[in-house]
From TrEMBL:
<dbReference type="InterPro" id="IPR052922">
    <property type="entry name" value="Cytidylate_Kinase-2"/>
</dbReference>
<dbReference type="GO" id="GO:0016301">
    <property type="term" value="F:kinase activity"/>
</dbReference>
<protein>
    <submittedName>
        <fullName>Adenylate kinase</fullName>
    </submittedName>
</protein>
<dbReference type="InterPro" id="IPR027417">
    <property type="entry name" value="P-loop_NTPase"/>
</dbReference>
<keyword id="KW-0808">Transferase</keyword>
<keyword id="KW-0418">Kinase</keyword>
Length: 188
């Protein structure tokens, strides 16, 4: 992992990048950040949940089909992909020019997921597949609570294996996210 040393360095890389991966734990604000960046940089927005992972009724898409869709998308010249999914890093990281890792404390992610659930409960949010109304349960909250311990090591291993030369900017607070948007000139 080629970790960037400052948010200013990340903003400079972001301005020049045509293929960006925004990842992190659910509820951390990655989709909100991604949507602000694509609006400003005029990049195509790709939600992994909406376009690859889920079919209506919370049915998981077949892995072979999922990988084929991802491979086709990453072959395109310009995109911002919103989603972590380390099992497809082998497809995405070799084409990625910058990774933004939204790495918030778990209590912020829990709060974000609960707030989002209240806002969208019973409806599909724009970054989710149609027919997948927002829901929240203890299993999902446990997933968020354990994310850093269980899934961050998989992310680090995937970055090392499939994208050792890809610059990575870790954003660990809402303030850092605002600072990045300010440096880009994006409205917060």
């Amino acid at each position: 992992m080629q970790e960037l040393s400052s948010i200013a360095e990340g903003a400079a890389h972001l301005r020049a990048a045509d293929r960006i991966l925004v990842m992190g734990c659910s509820g951390g604000g990655k989709s909100t950040l991604a949507q602000k960046i694509v609006a400003f940089l005029d990049l195509p927005y790709v939600s992994m949940d909406r376009e690859f992972f889920w079919l209506p009724g919370w049915v998981k898409r077949d892995k072979t089909e999922e990988r084929a869709l991802i491979a086709a998308k990453v072959a395109e010249d310009r995109w911002l992909i919103d989603g972590t999914g380390p099992s497809t890093f082998d497809l995405r990281l070799p084409r990625t020019e910058l990774v933004l890792w939204v790495r918030m404390p778990r209590w912020i992610c829990i709060w974000g997921a609960l707030s989002r659930a209240l806002r969208w409960l019973g409806r599909s949010r724009p970054d989710m597949a149609p027919g997948c109304p927002e829901r929240i349960d203890w299993e999902f909250l446990r997933y968020i609570w354990d994310w850093e311990q269980k899934f961050a090591p998989k992310v680090l291993a995937g970055l090392a294996q499939h994208g050792p030369d890809v610059p990575v900017l870790q954003l660990k607070s809402r303030g850092e996210m605002r600072q990045l948007l300010d440096l880009l000139g994006c409205p917060a």
